[in-house]
Amino acid sequence: MAFCKNCGNQISDQAVMCPMCGTMVSAPVNNTPKATSGNFLWAVLGFFVPLAGLILFIVWKNDRPGDAKMAGIGALVGFILNIITSVLWGVIVGLMEVLLLEGSYYYY
Ligand SMILES: [Zn+2]
After folding, report:
1. How remote is the CA of residue 17 from the centroid of ligand 1, in Å?
2. How far is the CA of 14 from the centre of ligand 1 (A)?
3. 19 CA from centroid of ligand 1 (Å)
4. 45-69 tens-digit pLDDT
5. Whole-prediction pTM value?
């Protein structure tokens, strides 16, 4: 059993909040998840497959916040780059069409 550090009420080890005063009870040190620095690999995966990164982010955001963050950042960056790339391609293709049309205009 643990005791609330605010009011001294005896509370369950599993309790996250004191039922008497509502103070959040910090979990015992040996039960806290390990350092939440995510694996950079998941950022790379999210970058190349934004949808997978997004799914991993949703699935992991509670259990593996570090990896979830990595996957989420990778997905976000990959997603934004995808948009930029498609916009750029649209501009390039549009310019080429204009140039080709102008070229044919001069030939005829
Ligand atoms: Zn309390």
Report:
1. 8
2. 14
3. 7
4. 999 999 999 999 999 999 999 999 9
5. 0.52
Residue that has been written with the tokens 């916040």 in this structure = 65
Distance between Cα 36 and ligand 1 center (Å): 28
Return the residue matching tokens 């997004």: 54
Instruction: Calculate the alpha carbon distances from 27 to 16, 33, 100 in Å.
Output: 7, 10, 68
Residue carrying structure tokens 């999210």: 46
Task: Please give the structure tokens belonging to residue 29.
Answer: 């040190």
CA of 5 from ligand 1 middle (Å) equals 7
Please tell me the distance from the alpha carbon of residue 25 to that of residue 49, in angstroms, as a whole number: 39
